[in-house]
Amino acid sequence: MIELQNIRKVFNEGLSSEYIALHDLTLAIAAHQVTVLKGPSGSGKTTLLSILGCMARPTAGRIVLAGREITSLPERFLTDIRRQTFGFIFQHYNLLKGISVIENVMLPAYPQGEPFSLLKKQAADLLKLFNLTHKAAAKVEWLSGGEAQRTAIARALVNQPEVIIADEPTAHLDTRLSREFMDIMRDFKAQGKTILIASHDPIVHESEVVDRVVQMRDGRIIDAGVI
Hints:
Strand order of the largest sheet: 6-7-8-3-9-10
CATH architecture: 3-Layer(aba) Sandwich
Strand content: 25-35%
CATH topology: Rossmann fold
CATH class: Alpha Beta
Distance between the termini: 13 Å
């Protein structure tokens, strides 16, 4: 579904502080599977995840999504692809304080131009799915860690994405909540979602739901895992 060809990512190119985050990586991600990027901090997991999700452009190389080369597309087209294809779950959740849970879930859907009443119903249905209906009007800063995580997952799903991207989603969770997260990923996989997770948490990369573990170090793939 997603193919990276000779991807290279350089920060501060040409300066004394130049840093090569990714070294000519080639990787194909299969649809409807759970793929985990595993490696220590600084291995390039998050950078690679951002390129896979079209949140960042590579310095060199090609990205092919569902058979379409998208590397050189103008930003407005990439923005549309991100909204329509990907749902993002961030390490720190990135929930917007000062507004309610349901408003946070609705945020990614506003640019799609759907009627407000329809967006609110979609968000309410997701909150019901994650047992958060009673928290719909609460400010997100009042949520527990598990509630914040489930709110972030609901927000990632509001546009009904084909691909779910999660960056260190269990980094701030205890064992029980980490296992609960992987159970949720199991359900999404059963629904035909493609799931990409960056994590060094054994609960994640040793989970039975995971199809493939790609091991990284120093911006290189050292083991592409079983396809």
